[in-house]
Design a protein that fits this description.
9 strands; about 140 residues; 5-stranded mixed sheet; alpha+beta
C-alpha cells in the first residue's frame, strides 16, 4: 500500500512540475498552398513528459466570427524539454480567411506511462501571425 501511495504521489509531483513549466504552442506561420492553408505550429515542451499522444481539437474562425473549419490535429510525438514543429493543411480554406484559431479541447494526451491528466491546462497558446490563437 505504501508503494502505491508513493507511486501516486510521484505521479502527482510530476504533473505539478509539468504544469509549472507548461507546453507552449505557437501559431507561427500560415502559408497558402493551392486549395489549402498550410499552418505551422511551434511547440516548446517545457515539461518532463515525453508526449507519445497529443491530439488537439482546433476550430478556425473567419474574420466575421463564423466557424470556417474544425480539425483534430495530432502534434505528437513531443520529447520532454524540446522544441518541435508540426505542419498541417486546412483544406478548402485560404489563410487570409482565418481570423482566429481556438484550441477547443485536447482529444487525447498520453506519455510513456499512460494518460496525462490536465493536458489542456498545461498548454499556453500564442500567435506570430495576424490570426489570434486562443485557448
Amino acid at each position: 500500500m505504501c508503494a502505491v501511495l508513493l507511486a501516486l504521489s510521484g505521479i502527482g509531483a510530476l504533473e505539478a512540475r509539468a504544469q509549472e513549466a507548461g507546453l507552449s504552442i505557437e501559431l507561427n506561420r500560415l502559408d497558402t498552398q493551392a486549395e489549402a492553408c498550410q499552418a505551422f505550429l511551434v511547440m516548446e515542451n517545457g515539461t518532463e513528459i515525453a508526449f507519445e499522444e497529443l491530439v488537439l481539437d482546433l476550430v478556425m474562425f473567419g474574420d466575421d466570427g463564423i466557424i470556417a473549419r474544425r480539425l483534430a490535429v495530432d502534434i505528437a510525438p513531443l520529447r520532454a524539454g524540446r522544441i518541435s514543429v508540426k505542419v498541417f493543411a486546412v483544406e478548402g480554406t485560404a489563410c487570409e480567411a482565418i481570423g482566429r484559431v481556438l484550441l477547443n479541447d485536447v482529444l487525447s494526451c498520453a506519455g510513456a506511462e499512460g494518460p496525462v491528466a490536465g493536458c489542456f491546462d498545461l498548454i499556453d497558446t500564442r500567435s506570430r501571425v495576424s490570426a489570434e490563437f486562443l485557448n
